[in-house]
Amino acid sequence: MEENKKIYILGISAFYHDSSAALIQDGKIIAAVQEERFTRIKFDSSYPINSINYCLNVADINIQDVNEVVYFEKNHLKFDRILKTYFKYLPKSFFQFAKAINLWLKEKNYIEKELSSHLNWKKNIKSFTHHESHAASAFYPSPYEDAAILTLDGVGEWTCTSIAHGQKNKIKVLQEVNYPDSLGMIYSAFTEFSGFKVNEDEYKLMGLAPYGKPVFKDLILNKLIKIYDDGSYKLNLKYFAFHYGHTTINKNFESLFGLKRNSNEEIRDLDQNMAASIQEVFNEIFVKLAITAKKITGSKNLVIAGGVGLNCVANGKIVEQNIFKNIWVQAAAGDAGCSLGCALIAYYNKNQRVLGTTNQKSSFLGPEFTSEEVKNILDNYSIDYKNFENDDLLLGEITNNLVGGKIIGLFQGRMEFGPRALGARSIIGDARSIDMQKNMNLKIKYRESFRPFAPAILEEHVHEYFSYFEKSPFMSFIFKLKKNHRIPNILKEMPLIDRLHQKRSIFPAITHVDYSARIQSVSKEENPLFHRVINNFYKKTNCPMIINTSFNVMGEPIVCTPIDALRCFFSNDMDILVLNNFVIHKDSQKIESIGKLNQLEELLI
Ligand SMILES: [Fe+2]
User: Fold this and answer.
1) Nearest to residue 475, comparing CAs of 538, 412, 549, 407?
2) Mean of the pLDDT values across residues 573-601?
3) Rounded to whole angstroms, how far apart are CA atoms 415 and 398?
4) In angstroms, what is the span from residue 180 Cα to ligand 1's centroid?
5) Distance (Å) from CA 454 to ligand 1 centroid
6) 26 or 107, greater pLDDT
7) What pLDDT, in 10s, does the model give residues 510-534?
8) 140 CA from centroid of ligand 1 (Å)
9) Is the pTM of this model over 0.90?
10) CB distance 287 to 323 below 8 Å
């Protein structure tokens, strides 16, 4: 009947970085997923055909049943910015300008054409601006009727940072900082200088900061960026190249700080100090922006999105300053989350907001697999497993193995949307073990990382271990371990990796060298299954936290399907894999089944 007809809106983020699709039904988020999980290409920016098909499958509809298709940015404004910027910086920007003109002439209607033809979509495709999409992804799924909204990233069309006010179904932008003044760009400049990959490895720079001293903070503030009282800022372009070339920094930047590191060279004290210094600058900007957002909105709530919003150290500083009563950060804070945001704008342009309808309590919005599907795969590959039909017995098995020092791949239910594994596609281990940290890095993740792992901690126990608390279901904040849990007088003058391996608390695997940890608070209501896993471990050990790292190896996206999980499991030294209720022990496998797994592509589910 007509009045019961459901309204579907499909949001798409694509062709730039981390493509994704999201589907909402009558304002409810029913599916959201990144394309990289299907194609196995990290940050895949291609047309998200698999993500779109997945979303439609969840609702059991086809594209003709969708009421609106919405795109996450305005392409003509983006080109306007690119062309005007390169034009302004001619002749230095000549090659980039020529390339952009060429692309624009060839592809000015590219997005609309590409989407329409792929989708077989005859109607109009709406689009909203990049930062409108970020802001909507932060506000509408949050639990607040009224909130200040902070969006921070590299750049959308023109906007790089914005403060907006969300009230019921309306979002009003109040203040913006425009390109080329970009927090994303300056952070990428430091990422490049320190020998990491721009647009990918920014989180590594953040993880490096606690090793360094912020000795360059004044120099950065004097030469590179001017911060105003309201948190707005201006870059001194003399030191950057992103606005005219294909790198982010130029020779002036190097003459100020020294030569940049090649990625194959050892990490230097200089890189550690650079990371610490830019982090201090970011902390100051975040706090000032938050104070301004509070002042001009009068709201007691803050929501955050945009790739720079993944800086959980700076987010933690906002919490420490006690500016807002509540803070919520979108799980998919980067551009993937924009597919969700733009779909929600389209919905709320026509509908009133009933609080709770779009509330994104978890990020479990991706594919899941039935026990029958999992069993078929395991049988097909002659993989030895034990099926625990009783959940309590399964939990007992997981706990006993965690306590026994085993590293476990945990594959349960719907996959996470956004960059963090939160219990559905996670590798877990005992946070109390220092060997665990080494083993996980070297044997499982294949990285000699200077970053410790993140703890997943029962929400009701966070206050016992950390000085500050904000619900952190998506690992959005970094807080310091309380003094009584620290091992004092740790040595600071020793090589980086030795410092990491120095025991700093009774939870060495999750405590950074400055006693900080990127926490995931796990609540019984929002993440019941993972809560049970940790709670069972707590009952046995009196320790309410475990290591939670993403289920992947370095350079690969997080696993999506049971096949991906098996491939990852058999390619490293993980001990146990838990696929739904099936438990697979590595050491009980026959060689033939592992060999057979090499032919995974031939498998038909
Ligand atoms: Fe963005």
Assistant:
1) 549
2) 79
3) 20
4) 14
5) 25
6) 26
7) 988 889 999 999 999 999 999 999 9
8) 17
9) yes
10) yes
